[in-house]
Design a protein that fits this description.
Elements: H1 4-28, H2 34-53, H3 58-81, H4 89-97, H5 102-121, H6 123-129, H7 137-165, H8 185-203, H9 211-223, H10 226-229, H11 233-236, H12 240-246
Helix pairs in contact: 1-2, 1-5, 2-3, 2-5, 3-7, 6-8, 7-8, 8-9
Length: 257
């Protein structure tokens, strides 16, 4: 049976954390740190749910361990990547389109919206945590898919950071390593992570948590991921036109030439 109070408690925890992030943005006059908060929303929701389930089954411990590893790595990477006083160009545009009083609107446009999305997507984490079903083959399959996605995403991020660290690559397009097989291998890895979490939830009987990986996949493909990044990238990097023609967008595959 779906335990609404426990799921609601995770929303309260996310909301309070989002409020703290918004208050910090007023001090910094910069909302970019919400990117670093994104993965922590899920870790916070998971531990809040586990706290009120009052149990420590193998599945709960597995989910808490996996979401912590994923969240801390992603938070650390994004914090390192975005370090500095300058606001990310995406948020600069959002700020410009929502003046005057963006400082107030950002509480729901930026922090509130991301908090609500994280809460909905965390449904698969909650479904896995609030289950007494024994560990089964789907749990192992979910773990394997998570591990593959985590590796793929982490390696892609590392390769991109190494590429950008070389001044000689400024304005160029990374088309080697995992980026040779997909224009967005980090997003593909992220997608695998969330389908892995869903398989673990499904193993616990939470088939209804399917909205979690589906929504995350849609966000990665159509909203804040592939579509947003490629909206004007060809204007800034002419070489990207050839990269688009020769390389799969999302699912890895052999280059076309």
């Amino acid at each position: 049976m779906f335990n609404w109070p426990i799921y609601f408690y995770s929303l309260v925890a996310i909301g309070l954390f989002a409020l703290m992030g918004w208050m910090l943005s007023l001090v910094r006059d910069n909302v970019t740190h919400v990117d670093s908060m994104w993965s922590l929303f899920f870790m916070l929701a998971s531990f809040t749910s586990a706290l009120f389930v009052f149990d420590s089954t193998p599945r709960i411990l597995l989910v808490l361990a996996l979401v912590s590893i994923w969240a801390i790595r992603l938070c650390a990477y994004l914090s390192w990547r975005n370090w500095g006083p300058h606001e990310d160009h995406r948020y600069v545009e959002i700020r410009r389109n929502n003046e005057p009083h963006f400082w107030l609107k950002s509480i729901y446009i930026i922090f509130g919206l991301q908090g609500i999305l994280a809460w909905i997507i965390s449904l698969s984490l909650y479904g896995a945590i609030d289950s007494n079903a024994p560990i089964n083959a789907l749990d192992y399959l979910g773990f394997v898919l998570f591990a593959f996605g985590f590796y793929w995403e982490a390696v892609a991020d590392w390769q991109l950071s190494q590429f950008k660290a070389n001044p000689a690559n400024k304005g160029k397009v990374l088309d080697t390593g995992l980026w040779r097989y997909s224009r967005h291998p980090n997003y593909f890895g992220e997608c695998c992570v969330w389908w892995g979490f869903y398989l673990i939830a499904l193993a616990g009987g939470a088939w209804w948590a399917i909205i979690s990986p589906v929504l995350m996949t849609l966000l990665l493909l159509k909203v804040s991921g592939v579509s947003l990044l490629e909206k004007d990238i060809a204007e800034r990097r002419p070489q990207y036109v050839a990269y688009i023609k020769n390389t799969n967008s999302f699912i890895p595959g052999s280059p076309k030439t």
